[in-house]
Design goal:
Layout (H helix, E strand, L loop, with lengths): L9 H5 L8 H4 L7 H8 L5 E2 L5 H11 L3 E5 L5 E6 H10 L26 H11 L3 E6 L2 E7 H24 L1
Parallel strand pairs: 1-2
Antiparallel strand pairs: 2-3, 4-5
């Protein structure tokens, strides 16, 4: 036996054990919501009016490096949504005559919206089933944010990585 070895004593067992984690912290079930996503992403919403031209909308999409614009009237009420896809489709339908057309001519008028308290999984389901990538967040008739399918997927991936780390730490102790 090495000379530095000391057999365990009663005093060793009396030492207080500390744990950095508990079953509660490792198995928490907080629901991921739109408001939690927006807290990390920000609430910037870029919009155009129905009377703006598609050229103006395309320039704003380019300058802000985004894929969709909320369409609001003069009072700020949601009228529709315009995406890059909408513009591209119209370019194919009316070559050379598209950019002078108004946003209201091609915007989607029936807009699916979500609320800040909505679960991200339900938002993702709506986007997948409806085959669209952008959803305005509305609270008390005001647009307070916009989420994209990429935002939701990235948020969920980060959440899964965190859950995986928690499980590893729970197993290792």
């Amino acid at each position: 036996m090495p000379s530095s070895y000391q057999a365990p004593s009663r005093k060793d067992k009396m030492q207080k054990k500390t744990r950095s984690q508990t079953s509660t912290t490792n198995t928490g079930t907080e629901t991921a919501t739109v408001s939690r996503l927006l807290a990390g992403k920000g609430k910037d919403v870029f919009s155009v009016r129905p009377q703006n031209t598609l050229l103006e909308a395309a320039e704003l999409l380019r300058d802000k490096r985004i894929g969709a614009l909320v369409v609001k009237d003069a009072a700020g009420k949601l009228q529709g949504i315009l995406s890059e896809r909408d513009i591209v489709r119209r370019l194919a339908e009316t070559p050379g005559k598209t950019l002078s057309q108004n946003v209201e001519d091609i915007m989607t008028r029936r807009v699916e919206v979500c609320a800040p308290d909505d679960a991200l999984i339900s938002v993702l389901r709506k986007m997948t089933e409806g085959r669209f990538r952008h959803m305005p967040v509305v609270e008390e008739d005001a647009v307070v944010g916009i989420v994209t399918i990429g935002d939701v997927v990235n948020y969920r991936l980060s959440e899964l990585e965190y859950e995986s780390l928690q499980l590893k730490q729970l197993i290792v102790g």
